[in-house]
Protein: Sodium:proton antiporter
Organism: Nocardioides marmotae
Amino acid sequence: MTSDLVYVVAGGALLLAIVLPALLSRWAVSSPMVLVGVGMLLGLTPLPDGLPLDPQANRAVIEHVTELVVIVALMGVGLAIDRPLLIRKVSSWRPWGPTWRLLLIGMPLSIGAVAFLGWWGAGLPLAAALLLGGALAPTDPVLASSVQVAGPRTGEGYEVDEEDELRFTLTSEAGINDGLAFPFVYLAILVAHEGASLGLLPSWVGFYLVGKVVLGVVAGIAVGRALAFVAFRSQSVSLRVAERGESLLALAALVAAYGVGEVAQGYGFLAVFACAMTFRSAERSHDYHAAMHEVAERLERLLTLFVLLVLGIALTRGLLADLDARGIAIGLGLLLVIRPLTGALALAAWRSTPEPGMTRGEKWAAAFFGVRGIGSIYYLAYAAGEAEELGTGWLWSTVAFTIVASVLVHGVLATPVLARVGRGRDPATSRRADAEEAARRAAPGP
């Protein structure tokens, strides 16, 4: 019976994934909002028991499913970014300035603020408070499609200089910060096992904060270069899959990059993103990148909507049973106060900068749209598997509430806010942004 119910839910999610984008194109309502709502309604019906809804009892399944969703999304995000980033070319790092500030200033401040609220305000043990901060820190590449770049521009349409600064910043931040949040999740696990001690810091900084980041990036670059060479430049015609348009290489790339990154003891999430960026840098204007991105995007959409439908069912079947005023305050505080303020501080949003940087309105929008999603579920499931005491019902309820609140708040505000801040742009950029938005709405995506 359990497997039959899973098929029913999966079939419903796939059907909704197909029809929802066209139905919702005229409304400020996102597909994730509808899927969560439909799931909640299903949870209120006399649906037979049997779905694996208990988070701790089904922790391993939740971990692996959400892990897959995130790495598929990261591959799509990496392929979608047009702006180059070359490790040995410092000049290519400067156009990514807003992204680095959100990652290196905004995210640590956000982690610290949430962890402090969890420890001081909610009375959590230090390990659980650190996990809450780390799990809720990264913006999500899965649920943030409405505020991200639409996809790679290739062929005659490839013009890096015309890239939307706001969407680029939110996209690149979501692509990188999933891996950079992992050190803080590991810190929570270490504290849970060994207790809070200054003796943890050298090994944590040296290996978890620096070493695993470097290993993940290097692994991703190596896999990306190898696959790009085979796809575009191999002497064997049968191996030059780009010429045949065999876009399923996207799946091989994300699985290979993640596996190599993990085997090398690095962060697999960073390896996948680095692989996608490296592959994108080869034959940058080739239409093959758009074909690969479409495969990753479609798979991401199907997996995401399935997870959201199950999440909605779980919400009305006990997942929020341990939610209290403390969890609500932390979740809403993160979305409405902590992320906007830390993001604004990182971007110095109260100061305007000349073009081609972001306008003041775009900075505030980038600070506000810190979408939380599937990645937070993965981090919590992973940590709960490493230290059982970190899988408490209160943490599951609080993280789930924060994700649903983010889906609702950011889903409703994304279209009107981005349309409003875009008015401050020059006419050519505004026309291009309008065209991209029209194409986004016409495409069968979330």
